[in-house]
Write a structure and sequence with these properties.
It is a single chain. The protein is mainly β. The protein has a domain at 6-422: Methylamine Dehydrogenase, Chain H, CATH 2.130.10. The strands form 14 sheets. Strands 2-1-11-10-9-8 form a 6-stranded mixed β-sheet, with no helix packed on it. 58% of the residues are buried. Pfam families: BNR. Belongs to the glycosyl hydrolase 74 family. Keywords: Carbohydrate metabolism, Glycosidase, Hydrolase, Polysaccharide degradation, Signal.
């Protein structure tokens, strides 16, 4: 039986911005017996931190408006935390930036719930993955709108970044007792807590799981004092039961007369119209966001038990799709919006009815989309689309024409049902892989990310004006490199629409595709490096099945490529930023450092006997002198070499090293500032050293941890102390001395 250990509960502080709420109880006064207050007393960070603005870029899977407080709303994302809407500032406030690297699985939010009668209370169910390698989920409750949290560790796994992440909400406050909460899980049935989430147990009387497809309870909703639970593991047959209800909180039974069959295989969302006493349920034949080809919308008259099929458009043939989001207008009886999902033939839309589902209007048909604030949403085209992966929509209970809907890349909103624009300020969910801060030029930053490819940041406070790098347009960046002594020359790789590699001669503003590419690049574009003068390229590859492939070299901007037989297969090439003839590569299988002194034509082994088998290796070359190498390993710390990788010395102060980069030197320093995500003296954080790694200053704090930070970090070569940090779901963090 799933349960939780209340002794493991911990009160955690949220972000500084969230803590700015006034008139709320102090953290210490809220600490309950058996709970400990941590994080609130941490020393102030010597740095100020804020996001480099991109704007969204991730899947917004849920928005909940508070029914009693105008302008109060919460958003959840699949892997980038939760947010509270600040109506005065018109922006989202991140609530989970304190999630540590050890707890990175908890940055994904499976579900959220509010207390309609107590506006300061909010609840979150956290957990990104249910696989064996992922940690268990956690439950958070807050009495101050997310400024501080009380945590309960769960004994089950949750899957906010898996299929079905757009269903819900899977978390529900019982309207009959505000201390009682229900949590639908993917593999462990329905859980119930009677003490506001301090402890959890399997709900008695709920049917056992008929299968283990990984959806379980997909949606929980209350209709007056009756609770409904959608079951996502049905087989789509004419006799399958997918919707249960309870009127007493103890006994659950199938809802009589419920829809069945392929178009009603899986309940996605539900919304209750209290004025009409009617429950609307959306269905699909798969959990989504991909793979849906059938679906429907049905209405239940709760009092009489009568069901009505109110599907706006029935999927059929090439026009296959599912239904997803559902929301009722609190001010207008019979006014409802539902969303389509995975409708690629004519594009997803929001359908709206004002007569209880007898007729519907597609809001996309009269919509104009303004993405001037986030130009990347044009995806290299002349105009943006209405969006895809639309599995949620929400109507503001205080404004019938204020509707928001989430997509795979943003959150759109309208105030008049016609003009739509991203309502995304403050919400940054990018998963970032590469960062470059050029020493000259207009841009202080280039980035490469999952899902949105490469961006040229001519400003840090606005989404890049030119949007995504095109020619080609990449789905995900696989490599990004700049010629250290010729910063106008940049190369990038990824999965593209016009080849999988490109070069730029203007610092990354415009691009030209490689004229050819190795055959393996079509399947497995990997990291790339360019010599300090831009005269040679080395491109490495790993197949999708993890098989390592040979690397290739080009000396004509990708017009022709030659296999490098001596390069360690699958290694990440690194160019020496001073010597234009030198490349390096680290063989993680053998624990051997390789180097080339002929521009990548041949590679030879240097240091051997180094750590091997650690997937977290990162090799970096410092910019101030040739042969200054640094090797990060997440399980064995940091090593450096001042002779081009012939010998390495261990930095004993670091127990673990995740990624490392360099920036402008401090006045009087012999070498560049070193920026480091590492564990130092037992504390994992972001560090800076001005004396060649002899001493370290932690420049983040326990309230600014952002989950996983192991991909990239770089200092600004033009401004001492400025640093850019890649996160896996919280975008790019920019830090500067306080």
């Amino acid at each position: 039986m799933p349960s939780s250990d209340p002794s493991r509960r911990t009160v955690l502080a949220g972000t500084a911005a969230a803590a700015a709420l006034t008139g709320l109880p102090s953290l210490q006064s809220r600490a309950l017996a058996g709970e400990s207050a941590v994080g609130a007393a941490s020393a102030a960070s010597p740095y100020n931190w804020r996001n480099v603005v991109i704007g969204g870029t991730g899947f917004v899977t849920g928005v909940v408006f508070h029914p009693a407080v105008r302008g109060l709303a919460y958003a959840r994302t699949d892997m980038g935390g939760a947010y509270r809407w600040d109506d005065g500032a018109a922006r989202w406030i991140p609530l989970l930036d304190w999630i540590s690297q050890d707890d990175q699985n908890l940055l994904g939010v499976e579900s959220l719930a509010i207390d309609p009668a107590r506006p300061d209370r909010v609840y979150l169910a956290l957990g990104s993955y249910t696989q064996s390698w992922a940690g268990n989920g956690a439950f958070l409750r807050s009495d101050d709108r997310g400024a501080t949290w009380t945590r309960t560790d769960l004994s089950v796994k949750l899957g906010s970044n898996e299929d079905g992440r757009g269903t819900g909400e899977r978390l529900l406050l019982d309207p009959r007792n505000s201390d009682t909460l229900w949590l639908g899980t993917r593999h462990d049935g329905l859980l119930k807590s009677t003490d506001r989430g301090a402890t959890w147990a399997a709900a008695t009387g709920f049917p056992p799981a008929p299968s283990a497809s990984g959806q379980g309870v997909t949606v929980l909703v209350s209709a007056g004092r009756t609770l409904f639970a959608g079951w996502g593991d049905g087989d789509g047959s004419a006799t399958a039961t997918t919707l249960y209800r309870t009127t007493d909180g103890s006994t659950w039974a199938p809802v009589p007369g419920q829809p069945t069959g392929p178009a009603a295989k899986m309940p996605m969302r539900a919304a209750y119209d209290a004025r009409a006493d009617e429950l609307y349920v959306t269905y699909a034949d798969a959990p989504g966001p991909n793979g849906q080809s059938n679906g429907s919308v049905h209405k239940l008259a709760v009092g009489s038990g009568t069901w009505t099929d109110v599907t706006p458009v029935k999927p059929s043939g090439s026009d296959g799709f599912g239904y997803g989001g559902a929301s009722v207008d609190a001010q207008r009886t019979g006014t409802v919006v539902v969303t389509t999902n995975n409708r690629w033939s004519s594009g997803d839309t929001l359908f709206r009815t004002t007569d209880g589902g007898r007729s519907w209007t597609s809001l996309k048909d009269s919509a104009t989309i303004d993405v001037s604030e986030t130009p990347f949403l044009k995806w290299g085209k002349d105009a943006p689309t209405f969006g895809w992966w639309i599995q949620m929509a929400a109507i503001d209970p205080f404004d019938s024409e204020h509707i928001v809907y989430g997509t795979g890349a943003t959150l759109y909103g309208t105030l008049d049902l016609k003009k739509w624009a991203p309502q995304i300020r403050g919400l940054e969910e990018t998963s970032v892989l590469f960062l470059i801060s050029p020493p000259t030029g207009q841009a202080h930053l280039l980035s490469g990310s999952r899902d949105i490819g490469t961006l040229y940041h001519d400003q840090l406070t606005a989404s890049p004006a030119d949007g995504l790098a095109t020619n080609p347009l990449f789905v995900t960046a696989a490599g990004l490199a700049q010629a250290a002594n010729k910063p106008s020359y940049v190369v990038r790789t990824g999965l593209g629409d016009n080849g999988n590699g490109a070069y730029s001669n203007d610092g990354g503003q415009t691009w030209t595709p490689f004229r050819s590419q190795p055959s393996v690049a079509k399947e497995a574009p990997g990291p790339i490096a360019t010599t300090a003068d831009g005269s040679a390229l080395v491109w490495s590859f790993v197949h999708s099945d993890s098989t390592k492939a040979p690397a290739y070299r080009s000396v004509d901007n990708g017009t022709t490529w030659t296999e490098i037989s001596s390069f360690p297969k699958g290694a990440r090439p690194v160019a020496d930023p001073v010597d234009p003839n030198v490349f390096y590569a680290y063989d993680t299988d053998k624990g051997t450092l390789y180097a080339s002194t002929d521009g990548g034509l041949t590679f030879a082994a240097r240091a051997t006997g180094l750590p091997s088998g650690d997937s977290g290796f990162k090799l970096a070359a410092a910019p101030h002198r040739p042969g200054d190498l640094w090797l990060s390993a997440k399980t064995s710390g940091l090593r450096y070499s001042n002779d081009g990788g012939r010998n390495f010395t261990t930095v004993t102060s670091c127990q673990a090293s995740f990624t490392l980069g360099f920036g402008r030197a401090a006045d009087g320093a012999r070498g560049p500032a070193i920026y480091h995500v590492a564990t130092v003296s037992g504390a994992t954080g972001v560090y800076r050293s001005d004396d060649g790694a002899k001493t370290w200053l932690r420049i983040n704090d326990d309230q600014r941890q952002w989950g996983w930070l192991g991909e990239a970090i770089t200092g600004d070569p033009r401004v001492y102390g400025h640093v850019y940090l890649a996160t896996n779901g919280r975008g790019i963090q920019f830090g500067q001395p306080a």
